[in-house]
Specification:
single chain, 257 residues, alpha/beta, 2-enoyl-CoA Hydratase, Chain A, domain 1, 6-stranded mixed β-sheet, 4-stranded mixed β-sheet, 10 strands, globular
């Protein structure tokens, strides 16, 4: 889309792809983040989309994070508002989201990946939150990291500001897959295909059920999920089609409705 100066945006075959286009480091300044927020708003309205992928231009860095120059006292309030606006959009995005880390994700770049439902990376990728070395801390990572990994490792990463390898991030649950650089695009597409072959509405309601049940006591969560399942999902054409196709021993034909 021509509307974007610092991003590339496409929607094809059910996949919305947003590519950070400020190589070599894909730094997130306020203007870039405003575009990213707008791109997410556009993506949320794509009727044919089943999945959102965020990646970066280049081969070494997904994103080095928010521009340090935007942390100054005269800009920090606006920076936080715009950056956190992006992450709020991701947290409520109706479709599954995947961060495809074509390279290292640091600071706000790492937080951007944490806010996605899933993440894949190249073998050379490193991730981490070095903010403490600048005398500050990463608000989003302080919330999301403890939901993914053991608290002692979270404290080490946030208090020490070090970076970890893709393999360690995989072991800690931050990443879903790690792929060789030379086959990254192919392997990433193969990973995405498992979702793109499914019903859009089934994907949306499944994600919603997981999100709305998170953190609730079991019986409250169960009631919430039951309502989504019985009153909304089972009212869709695809739920009926999926069950019928199984009983009729044929491949389902999704209408995404």
């Amino acid at each position: 889309m021509s509307d974007f100066k610092f991003l590339e945006y496409s929607c094809s075959e059910g996949l919305v792809t947003i590519t950070l286009n400020r190589p070599p480091y894909n730094v997130l300044d306020i203007a870039t983040m405003e575009e990213l927020g707008h791109a997410l708003d556009v993506a949320a309205k794509e009727d044919s989309a089943k999945l959102l992928m965020i990646t970066g231009k280049g081969e070494k860095v997904f994103s080095a994070g928010v521009d340090v120059m935007d942390h100054t006292p005269d800009k920090v309030v606006q920076m936080i508002e715009v950056f956190h606006g992006i992450l709020k959009r991701l947290m409520v995005f109706p479709l599954p989201t995947v961060a495809a880390l074509n390279g290292s994700a640091m600071g706000g770049g790492c937080e951007l990946a944490l806010a996605c439902d899933m993440a894949v990376a190249t073998e050379e990728t490193k991730v981490g939150q070095p903010e403490i070395k600048l005398g500050v801390f990463p608000p989003i990572a302080a919330i999301l990291m403890p939901r993914i990994m053991p608290l002692p490792r979270v404290m080490e990463l946030l208090l020490g500001g070090g970076l970890i390898s893709a393999q360690e991030a995989l072991n800690l649950g931050m990443l879903n897959r790690v792929f060789p650089r030379e086959t990254f695009v192919h392997d990433c597409r193969h990973f995405l295909e498992q979702f793109l072959s499914l019903s859009r509405v089934a994907l949306m309601y499944t994600k919603r059920a997981v999100r709305e049940a998170a953190g609730k006591p079991f019986f409250e969560a169960l009631f919430t999920v039951e309502q989504i399942y019985l009153k909304e999902l089972m009212a869709t054409s695809d739920a009926v089609e999926g069950l019928n196709s199984f009983m009729e021993k044929r491949k389902p034909v999704w209408t995404n409705k």
